[in-house]
Amino acid sequence: MLDRLFSPQTIAVIGASKTIGKVGYDIMSNLVKSGFKGPVIPVNSAGGELFGLKVYPHITEYPDPVDLVVIAVPAELVPAAAREAVRKKAGAIVVVASGFKESGLQGRELEEELTAICRQGGVRLLGPNCLGIINTAIRLNASFSRRIPQPGHLAIFSQSGALCTAMMDIADEREMGVSIAISIGNKADINEVDVLATLAGDDETKVIVGYLEDISDGDKFVKAAEEASSRKPVVILKAGTTSAGARAAAIHTGVPVGKDTAYGAAFKRAGICRADSFEALFDYATALALQPTPRGNRVLIITNSGGSGTMAADAAEKSGLVVSRLTDGLTASLRDKLPLAACINNPIDISADAEPRHYATVIASALADGSIDAILVVLAPQYMNEPAATVRAILAQLDDTVPILASFLGGSDVMPSRKELAAAGLPFYDSPERAAGALKAMYEYGVWKRRPARHVVRFPVNRRRVERIITRRQRTGRLRLGEVKSKDILKAYGFNIMQGRLTTSLEEAVEIARSIGFPVAMKIVSPSIVQKSDLGGVRLNLGSSQEVADAFDLMMLRINKHAPNAIIEGVYVEKMAEKGLEVIIGMTRDPQFGPMLMFGLGGIFVEVMKDVTFHLAPITENEAVQMLKSTRSYKLLEGKRGLKEVDISAIAVALQRISQLTTDFPQVVELDINPLIVGEVGNDPVVADARMTFARPLTGV
Minimal CA–CA distance to 27: which of 186, 136, 141? Predict the structure, then answer.
């Protein structure tokens, strides 16, 4: 627990200063002006008095216990100050100075010294290189921020001190009060995991908003975020998503940044609403803080302009929401209550001369009908409109079952109504696109909240067979597995592998083909050749002994010509699988989050459209199905566009088996099944080709 950081009874400031403009002065000023009720102890070797308080030359001279110590001295003096705080048995230390690991090798060594002092003394450390902490519930402002936020229910945490200040500024602008604001800086000790765990249990916090550039411990983060998200919405902006951004984040924090795909998978698993821009961060947070979570994705659009209604409909559909048809009952009800010029469809265009009561009528009727899950009101300024009165009419219809968002277009003509919206607690947006994005975030969070309890299925498998293969390979240093051995492992984990054998002679190839039955496939097996097809190393649908013999000779001729130095282990002769839909499943082990599963359809869907989806292992049956549904090409699995429906549940099982294999064996760092041939319901998918890579053992195996 971090009670002595978040809710201290006593605070000391080492480096308290009488000089206006110095950090030590600003922190003392904030503590006094915020009205903190407990003792505030300024510490400075010069002694004297500051803000009417006695200044102690050393913290150890203060006679009573101290919970929180804020250190506001230059970086090189911080370790000595930290030692004094440890001797005083402080509960937590905040270090605001920069000049640590973000500044280079010397700063990194200084930070390591500081961290060791705190750990050995049993003191929790916030920072260094941070803004500090604010807790409005107890009037605590132990930071050097010039902004003191209004009390409220939005918690803010940020890896960047400057952005923490900016986030508080936006919260004030949107009339959203802040419960806690904390800057975690370099995260030498206290990090996002600690903060999420604390904020999850904070009664004053209703929504958590965060900015991160890296994550310290992927597994712990996912667990803490999942627990927090189950209690309240968590909205996070993860920076460093491009190669340039990742380099900048590494320079800023001194920490290498992981793959963005892995972050996306981790956020999805943990129920985090991921914002892709600073603007979206508060768009989502505002909606989640002020309105109920929608039960579904059916949205009703109400407008006074056909053009703005069309924009809103486009935005909603692009966001994955459904602009559903009105029920007959709702249509009939509205026809008697709206102007003749009104277009009673969805969007509902009340017409340019819409009166405030008309908006109220539509909202009330829609809520009574019960056929919609969210309402978006779009108002474009017209000469005859009454924006302020319209706002009051909308507010009178708010309830706690269906979220209502507003998008008032224009500038000064609607500005008074925007302020009224913010003060009344109704989310408003400059454009329908931003409003639709917020509704999408709300809907996805609701889906996550309603998800079934996580139950990871364990399949009966032959672990010992896999252990022997991995041990042998790691001993010999042959860490890349080709098709034959990869299929051997997959078979041990319950995958359907067609009958086949490896051979080095033409005669034996013919004999194998006869014994397993025609048609057969033949593939060259070589650690030197990755793209076998490009060199003529794959032949399919061979229907006779003569075709097998001819294919063997031609294959060897082509390989000798195009890859004369390749190591050839032989030719794999395998029974041909039935035709079906080709999909790709695989796994890449992320250094922070562990095994990351991948799914996509074969061919252009992966190579050109990049239509792939990812999820962290271990995966449940429901998560595997949702993983498939998240692809744009999912309709092809359902049998749309002239194709037969394939066994979707069998693909989900395959993903679960890969999940089990890669969680059972952390030595597997990459796995690729390409393709997995999937047939109709009741037919087991067939592994047509596969590859794996093992990690190099840290010590001799």
Answer: 141
Reply yes or no: is the peptide bond before residue 65 cis, omega within 30 of 0.
no
Q: Answer yes or no: do 153 and 139 share one domain.
A: no
Range of the domain at 643: 581-694
43 φ, ψ (degrees, to nearest 5): -125, 125
SS3 108: helix
Residue 164 lies in a domain: yes
Tokens of 378: 């779009």
CATH, residue 210: 3.40.50.261
**CATH number assigned to the domain comprising residue 685:** 3.30.470.20
Tens digit of each residue's pLDDT (9 = 90 or more) over 350-400: 987 788 899 999 999 999 999 999 999 998 876 556 777 888 898 999 988
pTM over 0.70: yes
Tokens of 384: 């005859």
Give φ, ψ of 109 to 5 degrees.
-65, -40
Q: Which residues pair with 590 in a beta bridge?
A: 594
CA atoms within 13 A on the CB side of 592: 20
Structure token digits, residue 572: 């794999």
CB-based contact 571:509 (threshold 8 Å): yes
Nearest to 563 by CA among 523, 532, 521: 532
Count of domains in the chain? 5
CATH at residue 522: 3.30.1490.20
Which of 558, 575, 592 is the last residue in one of the domains? Answer: 575
- What is the identity of the amino acid at 677? I
Q: Which long-range contacts (CB under 8 A, 24 or more apart) does 51-58 make?
A: 55/16, 56/12, 58/84
CA-based nearest residue to 75, from 12, 116, 112, 128? 128
> Domain check: are 122 and 194 in the same one?
no
How many Cα neighbours within 13 Å face the side chain of 385?
Answer: 24
d(CA 73, CA 44): 10
Cβ–Cβ < 8 Å for 291, 405: yes
Q: Are residues 285 and 327 in the same domain?
A: no
DSSP class of 290: H
Sign of dihedral through CA atoms 26, 29, 30, 36?
A: positive
- Report the C-alpha gap between 197 and 195 in whole angstroms: 5
- Over residues 134-144, the pLDDT tens digits come to 999 999 999 99
Structure tokens, 76: 């090189």
* Residue that has been written with the tokens 């004369």 in this structure: 564
3-state class (DSSP) for residue 23 = helix
pLDDT in tens, 505-523: 999 999 999 999 999 999 9
Contacts of 320 (CB under 8 A, 6+ apart): 297, 440, 443
- Ordered strands of the 520-525 beta sheet: 500-503, 570-575, 520-525, 538-542
The verdict on 74 and 167 lying in the same domain is no
Residues comprising the chain, all counted: 701
Task: Using alpha carbons, list the distances in angstroms from residue 673 to 332, 493, 621.
Answer: 55, 13, 19
- Asked whether residue 248 is assigned to any structural domain, the reply reads yes
Residues 138 and 11 in one domain: yes
Q: Are 647 and 679 in contact (CB under 8 A)?
A: yes
* Spatial CB neighbours of 376, under 8 Å, sequence gap ≥ 6: 299, 300, 301, 302, 312, 316, 404, 405, 406, 407, 432, 435, 436, 439
**Do the domain assignments include residue 454?**
no
Instruction: Kindly state whether residue 218 falls inside one of the protein's structural domains.
Output: yes
What is the CATH classification number for the domain harbouring 68?
A: 3.40.50.720
* Other residues' Cβ atoms within 10 Å of the Cβ of residue 673: 24
Distance between CA atoms of 224 and 140, rounded to whole angstroms? Answer: 25
